Amino acid sequence: MEFTKMHGLGNDFLVFYGEKALPKEASYLAQKWCNRNFGIGADGLVFILPSEQADFNMRIINSDGTEAEQCGNAIRCVCKYVYEKGYVRSERVTIETLGAGVQQAVLQTDSGVVTSVRIDMGEPILAGRAIPTKLDASPVLDWPIEAAGQKFNVTAVSMGNPHCIIYVEDAASFDLNTWGPRLETHLFFPQKTNVEFATIISRNRVEMRVWERGAGATLACGTGACATLVSSVLHGYTNRAAWIGLPGGDLFVEWDEVDNHVYMNGPAETVYEGSVNR
């Protein structure tokens, strides 16, 4: 199988094109190939498949073998891939996702190279049961939960996949590896959750670190950046458009007041191409 190694701000994937459907052994292959010591190494596998509703269908398998409903960094990689490979000629692309339906993308290009992608990430889901959480409230703001004896105030948002945002004094030094996995699997989140630790810098900037459900600590999370902006607006901390700073770089996120959609702007990069046996 031929693959392309790609990343969005360091959130890296093995991208596959040409399969007619998701391979039955995709979960096993993800655990095998994503291993950074015994495999190729990646946060997940991305399969670009045919779609009856959009230009392409994107399926994402996390490094632990579970399937992700959505991924903002992966969708930018997919857009870059299909455009630069010549599978689409338009700078407007539609991608079908498991968790957010058909998403619209607008590509910025320079001499045939995609330099940035703006994705319509859809409307945020704020109803507690729909995110899902155990709480029947909308929105779920600063809800107190306890994990391993530590109390946290969590804000829950879904961008087609669940997110838990927690504000801390210094996201860069926060103990992500201790608290990320404990909160990911907390019973308050019946389908587990992505966890974002965020620090407000100004009304136009938030610094964030993320523990991704099914992948662990990653350098960036596009849906997490979107959820963090929504949460920060709901709290009154930021404007409706702000930069979200992640270890791998910055994303510009906007929550439109008219259509209620969240728009994410950022790059994607190709690292190398190769082939691998199943």
From TrEMBL:
NCBIfam families: DapF. Belongs to the diaminopimelate epimerase family. Substrate binds at N11, N62, G72, N73, N161, N194, E212, R213, G222, T223. It is found in: Cytoplasm. Catalyzes the stereoinversion of LL-2,6-diaminopimelate (L,L-DAP) to meso-diaminopimelate (meso-DAP), a precursor of L-lysine and an essential component of the bacterial peptidoglycan. InterPro entries: DAP_epimerase_AS, DAP_epimerase_DapF. The record marks H163, E212 as: Could be important to modulate the pK values of the two catalytic cysteine residues. One of its GO terms (cellular component) is cytosol. The keyword Isomerase applies. GO terms for biological process: lysine biosynthetic process via diaminopimelate. Homodimer. It comes from Paenibacillus lentus. Keywords: Amino-acid biosynthesis, Cytoplasm, Isomerase, Lysine biosynthesis. It catalyses: (2S,6S)-2,6-diaminopimelate = meso-2,6-diaminopimelate. Pathway: Amino-acid biosynthesis; L-lysine biosynthesis via DAP pathway; DL-2,6-diaminopimelate from LL-2,6-diaminopimelate: step 1/1. This is Diaminopimelate epimerase. One of its GO terms (molecular function) is diaminopimelate epimerase activity. The gene is dapF. Its main location: cytoplasm. The active site is at C71 (proton donor), C71, C221 (proton acceptor). Its EC number is 5.1.1.7. The keyword Amino-acid biosynthesis applies. It comes from the Bacteria.
